[in-house]
Design brief:
Blueprint lengths: L1 H32 L19 H11 L6 E8 L6 H17 L9 E2 L5 E8 L6 H14 L7 E5 H14 L2 H20 L6 H25 L5 H32 L3 H28 L7 H32 L21 H11 L1 H16 L20 H12 L8 E6 L3 H10 L3 E10 L2 E8 L6 H13 L4 E3 L1 H35 L3 H24 L13 H29 L4 H28 L7 H33 L32
Antiparallel strand pairs: 1-3, 1-4, 2-3, 5-7, 5-8, 6-7
Length: 696
């Protein structure tokens, strides 16, 4: 009796001990979590490909006298033509800017041929690499350069565009977190139908997000991991989306066990044993897939790998330790008003997933073929995706820098309006300058700063920025100027496109291989993992295809982010396999109990279909939050992933994977033991598969 009481007291102490450990962890990480925003960087070099010319240009410019140059262009415009007073105003304001800030050269006005526009290129090394000082400089210039009486004045150029993008990213943190939390809260209330239960996983997800911020800051300080607005935003989405998925699976299994087991502690232990392997494997696939991004050459993609992995692992740790502890301490009453009583049985109702299982069981090959044709047809829409996204088209609402670029494009169609930066060895700078001036497509070229054996050249193309003509000029300069680097805003966009194509060839096979190995280890099979991987790849293609059908024709998007294909693939494959793991793991459990394989597939769908649907809705909704953000890259990524998750949840998992498992029967577990041993109770029936008793 005394030993039993000691055991019970020990069990009661475990949740409190876990809670205490989490308080200590949060106390240690709290000072660092609040500093993550301070190390967030959204400079071009933080997104550029590591080995590209444009990256080398950005790095060398940092080392030249004065450091990195902030380049702007002040654009004065009047539709009816500039007046003498307008030109005088422009000269006075540019003079005021020059007296207020040290500039690399005295700005010279360049009038347009039609007389409507006057542009002043302005460059300064005052901010260096400090983004806050850059933003202050740009805003000071904007405060000085003001139009009146019909004269419009816009400040554009690379520096102004970077400031506008930085302001957008800095504004994301609060709205992204609040919107994500609100969406998850609403869905949890609808799913649990309880006034209290939804608060627990939401609060735990918030704690996991705070922990991930502290760990991400530690990675930045300890290993130099880059932190950008995009990667930190995605990390928050992953914590709430994936973490809530794990919570849904655990709570669902815990509710089941509370009906069989009297003590909440013992029921939670049973629930963790039942769903723990699936959750661990699920998080492992996501973490492994994201970690493969370290092989990417693109800085933004490579930096997203560690931060995404941190988000997933923090969510896993919180949902598998803190959430169980809190639920045990709160007891059964947390489920009120739908409290799972000990010894009770849930009401038997014919669910949507019972109907889905019934159709998949009767005609598995027909369902499988129909689904494959549908996904294949949708994938063809990817051929309609718009071309590469230009810088000025990256914002959902037009900032001042984009307005300036549009004005320049119309007023100066005969020449470029932003420089191509060339970095040449100083001992060959004169020859490089002469060669650049002789290059077809070059309007002018001038010599700039020198230092550390390098000299900066500024080249103006005769074609508009990011046009086919300017792209051809950049490629020609790179071919002609051996030993020199060619960069600048347009060259950066070209390198982004080329590097994303290279990264897809490297990262995609790594992701597939790592996910496949984890699935083989979990399911003790080769066939089942191949089915799951093929399914998520088909979902990715279909989701991209739907994007191609709506981005241009319906939404009016002018381009597609070059990284959309790679990032959507990594997230959809890694996250999509989650639901396959939940389904297949439960199917394997049923098969190990002796259930006939086809029946086990339908039983797994009936028991996990609801939680998979709930998890899919939550994950899709969290990524859909990105579609409300003011950056088109995030909108496109959020849309494709949300659509892909919904396809995966309601078509692939429920119909295609189930029908494939029913059709293959024991062969789905080949070459594992389950594929060789007959199910308990005799031979498989050749008749059509009937529904499990609970599905009728």
């Amino acid at each position: 009796m005394g030993a039993a009481r000691t055991t019970i007291r020990g069990r009661r102490a475990v949740p409190w001990l876990v809670l205490g450990l989490w308080v200590a962890v949060l106390a240690l990480t709290s000072p660092f979590a609040s500093k993550l925003a301070d190390v967030q960087r959204d400079r071009a070099v933080d997104y550029l490909p590591a080995s590209a010319d444009s990256t080398q240009v950005a790095k060398i410019q940092d080392q030249l006298p004065g450091g990195e140059t902030t380049q702007m262009v002040v654009v004065y415009h009047r539709d009816g033509g500039l007046t003498a007073a307008d030109r005088a105003t422009a000269a006075d304001q540019i003079g005021e800017i020059a007296s207020a800030h040290p500039l690399t050269a005295k700005p010279q006005g360049v009038p347009s041929k039609d007389g409507t526009t006057l542009m002043y290129p302005v460059a300064s090394t005052e901010p260096g690499t400090d983004e806050k000082k850059r933003d202050q400089l740009v805003n000071d210039v904007r405060d000085i350069a003001q139009g009146e009486n019909g004269l419009s004045v816009d400040v554009g150029g690379e520096g102004a565009l970077a400031t506008d993008a930085s302001e957008v990213y800095n504004s994301l943190d609060g709205p992204l977190l609040y919107t994500t939390a609100a969406v998850v809260a609403l869905l949890l209330i609808l799913i649990y139908r309880s006034p209290f239960l939804w608060l627990v996983p939401l609060a735990v997800a918030g704690i996991a997000d705070y922990l991930s911020m502290g760990v991400a800051y530690g990675l930045n300080q300890g290993f130099g991991t880059s932190v950008s607005g995009q990667s930190s935003g995605i990390m928050t989405i992953l914590v709430f989306g994936a973490g809530t998925d794990y919570a849904l699976l655990l709570v669902s299994r815990y509710r089941e066990e509370l009906r069989r087991i009297e003590r909440p502690y013992d029921a939670m232990v049973a629930a963790l044993k039942g769903c723990g392997p699936a959750v661990l494997a699920s998080s492992g696939t996501v973490a492994a897939g994201l970690f493969c991004l370290l092989a990417a050459d693109l800085n933004s993609s490579r930096g997203m790998g560690p931060l995404g992995t941190v988000g997933i692992l923090c969510a896993l740790a919180a949902m598998m330790t803190l959430l169980p502890a809190i639920l045990v301490l709160l007891g059964r009453r947390v489920f009120w008003p739908l409290v799972p009583r000990y010894g009770s049985t849930p009401k038997v109702r014919r669910s949507l997933f019972a109907a889905m299982g019934s159709s998949a069981g009767r005609r598995p090959l027909t369902v499988l073929a129909g689904g494959a044709v549908l996904l294949g047809a949708l994938s063809l829409g990817a051929l309609n995706l718009p071309g590469s996204l230009k810088q000025e088209d990256s914002f959902t609402s037009k900032p001042e820098a984009v307005a300036a670029m549009e004005t320049l494009g119309k007023a100066y169609p005969e020449r470029g309006t932003q420089p191509i930066s060339v970095i040449a060895p100083t001992d060959r700078a004169d020859a490089a300058l002469a060669e650049a001036r002789d290059t077809p497509g070059v309007d002018s070229a001038t010599r700039g700063r020198s230092g550390d054996g390098w000299t900066e050249l500024s080249v103006i193309a005769s074609s508009a920025p990011q046009s086919a003509g300017e792209t051809a000029t950049i490629k020609e300069l790179r071919d002609r100027l051996d030993g020199s680097y060619v960069g600048g805003p347009s060259a950066e966009q070209l390198d982004l496109k080329d590097t994303n194509a290279r990264d897809r060839l490297v990262v995609v096979p790594l992701v597939l291989a790592s996910v496949l190995l984890i699935l083989i280890a979990l399911l003790r099979s080769i066939v089942a993992p191949l089915i799951l991987v093929a399914a998520v790849v088909a979902v990715w293609g279909a989701a991209l295809g739907i994007g191609g059908l709506v981005f241009g024709p319906l939404f009016g998007f002018e381009g597609t982010d070059p990284g959309l294909g790679l990032l959507s693939f990594v997230f959809l494959v890694a996250l999509g396999v989650d639901y396959g793991i939940f389904l297949m793991h439960r199917m394997r459990e049923e098969s190990l109990k002796g259930t006939e394989p086809a029946q086990a597939a339908l039983m797994a769908l009936r028991t996990t279909g609801g939680v998979i649907a709930s998890a899919g809705l939550v994950l899709a909704a969290t990524f859909a939050v990105l579609t409300s953000m003011p950056m088109l890259q995030l909108v496109e990524l959020g849309f494709v992933i949300a659509v892909g998750v919904l396809l995966d949840t309601f078509l692939v998992r429920t119909y295609l994977v189930t029908s494939a498992s029913v059709a293959l029967r024991r062969k789905v577990w080949w070459p594992g033991a389950l594929s060789k041993e007959p199910a308990a109770g005799g031979e498989e029936s050749p008749e059509p598969v009937a529904e499990p008793a609970g599905m009728r």
